[in-house]
Amino acid sequence: MPDPNGFLRYDRRLPARRPVPVRISDWREVYPPAGEELTREQATRCMDCGIPFCHDGCPLGNRIPDWNDLVRTGNWDAAVESLHATNNFPEFTGRLCPAPCEAACVLGIGGGQPVTIKQVEVEIADAAVARGGLRPRPVPAPTGRSVAVVGSGPAGLAAAQQLARAGHAVTVYERDDAIGGLLRYGIPDFKLEKQHIDRRLAQLAAEGVQFRTGVDVGVDVTAEQLRAEHDAVLLACGALQGRDTPETPGRQLRGVHQAMAHLVAANRVVAAAGDGRPALAVLPDGTPIDAAGKHVVIIGGGDTAADCLGVAHRQGAAGVHQLDLYPEPPQTRDAARDPWPTWPWVLRNYPAHEEGGERVFAVAVQEFVDDGTGQVKGVRIAEVSVEKRDGRRIVTPLPGSERELPADLVLLAIGFEGTEQQPLLEQFGVRRNAWGAVDARPDWQTDADGVFVAGDMHRGASLIVWAIAEGRAAAAAIHAYLGGVGELPAPVDPARQPLAAR
Ligand SMILES: Cc1cc2nc3c(=O)[nH]c(=O)nc-3n(C[C@H](O)[C@H](O)[C@H](O)COP(=O)(O)OP(=O)(O)OC[C@H]3O[C@@H](n4cnc5c(N)ncnc54)[C@H](O)[C@@H]3O)c2cc1C
Ligand code: SF4
Fold it and tell me: Which residue stretches of the chain have pLDDT < 50?
């Protein structure tokens, strides 16, 4: 029986982040472990309200009040079991999820302080490692059916684990040199150290999942070959087509790059350096893309932009501006616009924002300025108003508001336009829709029979928690398609959307 008064005795508290000067001198995670005492105290704040809206906020349907109470009473092994019943990779979501569950927590009504659900989750996930490691489940009797998973991000990996545990032979194909999708080379180590991925991969391998890296499906192996070798195929190739701004004057200048080029280059040198101080980041052709000593301008206001900000400071940038087209959001939920328990539009301060840099809201780039040699030396911006007319976004510059910011390195973090156009699509006979995503039927199959889709490739650029939920659900559909015994859990269907007021 949970403590009904815990939230009256304890305020919401998170562990202190590592001090800024210390953490920007290395690439280690920003948050230290919370420790048992704080974690149990915070879990005690969950009153088990009876109608846990947090379940609906979490696409995985994590059994939050159950594991909060198990942590409160110190039943760590049972908490580990309960959490893994719905989430294959809580060490990823516990570190990286924006926690829509917390926005839906009953304690958050009327501006209250929700339970620190995500923090409790990561502590349980880490307890699993501390208490004997991520033990592989016993391999079941083989079904004789085999599945190819294309793409090794959280969607592909969740599906692979579910299918292997049901007895199917699973091979994950990844074109990169390492498994993990955006977790590996997109998201910096200060948000997710890579040993968490490696530990989980060891578990998947022990459960029978085969990994083939450096294989670009559609190029190194054809769709026809894959279909001949396997009974079903899951496409989980992500939504990695970065949005660009070709119409902005000066876009072709040296020093103007896609944000992902910067992040991947930085993450690769960190991976190569291990714990040592990494070398300068370069593109695959050797072009430097390091922020050391440079004035950096990051265009965009989301996760990717914040990650570039944190990387730029760790690389030793001289100064950083982060530009956002939209006005500064409010600090607290506007209940008329986003009533509880929906996800509110509020100012989100990532740890990277306390590390330095200046955020500039309601501005748009008018020109990337040439230094006369073809290298960018500045960014000319104007204050703007943004409105929606007939479903279209109209951006109007304010006359006389233009000014120039110094810039030796400009990073475009202005979103993604769906999955990449690549040979695999045509070979499998699947198309991108108007948003660049690949549609799924209610049973997760694409237009091609026996070819399923999940994660960002289906949903468009989204979140890890959605990728895992879709991977689990697609695995359930593939299991049924292959005539597997019993049912696998399917937390979402392809049409499922986040909680919304209308
Ligand atoms: C910089 C950045 C930071 C982010 N931070 C967060 C965060 O803090 N929290 C959060 O919840 N979400 C975050 N996200 C979003 C999150 O990473 C994605 O929603 C999630 O990784 C999607 O998982 P996925 O498995 O669908 O695809 P991905 O992780 O994109 O993996 C797709 C994989 O498919 C591979 N692939 C593609 N084509 C082929 C092919 N032809 N053959 C073989 N392999 C192929 C790719 O190489 C890639 O490894 C972030 C995204 C970015 C870009
Ligand atoms: S996965 Fe995300 S939404 Fe679900 S319980 Fe964890 S933090 Fe909350």
Answer: none
